[in-house]
Amino acid sequence: QVHLVESGGGLVQAGGSLRLSCAASGRTFTTHSMAWFRQAPGKERDFVAANDLSGEKYADAVKGRCTISRDNAKNTVYLQMNSLKPEDTAVYYCAAESRVSERLPQNTWEYGYWGQGTQVTVSS
């Protein structure tokens, strides 16, 4: 059974940094896209970043402030977030493709595995 477990969320002041981690178990995702999404209260779940063997993709809202990376030996994907803003406040979810697409998908329905989410709160 596949599990994705996020960690690293918390409360941070505007301008601060956080590093989120997502540890996968049950299968490896070396060739699959893994991604981060976020969902603020009352809003839809939005794409943040994704990476696979071909590269990375970022939402415009976080480009230049966030970096997605992964350690395949640990089956873990990370999201380094810098210069955080109050509007970054959300629950952050890790996702992994169930089938390789080689397209770095940005839609929630294109990911078959999800973590439980980790709360990020940025105070002004």
Could you characterize what this model shows?
34% of the residues are buried. The mean pLDDT is 96. Helices cover 0% and strands 50% of the residues. Strands 2, 4, 5, 6, 9, 10 and 11 form a seven-stranded mixed β-sheet that branches. Strands 1-3-8-7 form a four-stranded antiparallel β-sheet, with no helix packed on it. It contains no helices and eleven strands. With 124 residues, it is an all-beta fold.
- Which shape, going by the Cα principal axes? globular
Pairing-aware structural class of the strands and helices? mainly beta
Largest sheet: 7 strands, mixed
Using only C-alpha atoms, the radius of gyration works out to 13 Å
Percent of residues in helices? under 10%
Mean pLDDT: 96
Uncertain spans: none
According to DSSP, the number of beta strands is 11
**Ends: how far apart?**
40 Å
Helical segment count? 0
Q: Report strand %.
A: over 45%
**Order of helical and strand elements:** EEEEEEEEEEE
Layout of strands and helices, then pairs:
Blueprint: E1 3-7, E2 10-13, E3 18-25, E4 34-39, E5 45-52, E6 55-58, E7 66-71, E8 76-81, E9 90-96, E10 113-114, E11 118-123
Parallel strand pairs: 2-11
Antiparallel strand pairs: 1-3, 3-8, 4-5, 4-9, 5-6, 7-8, 9-10, 9-11
What are the salient characteristics of this protein?
single chain, 124 residues, mainly beta, seven-stranded mixed β-sheet, four-stranded antiparallel β-sheet, 0% helix, 50% strand, globular
How would you summarize what this structure contains?
0% of the residues lie in helices and 50% in strands. It has 124 residues and is mainly β.
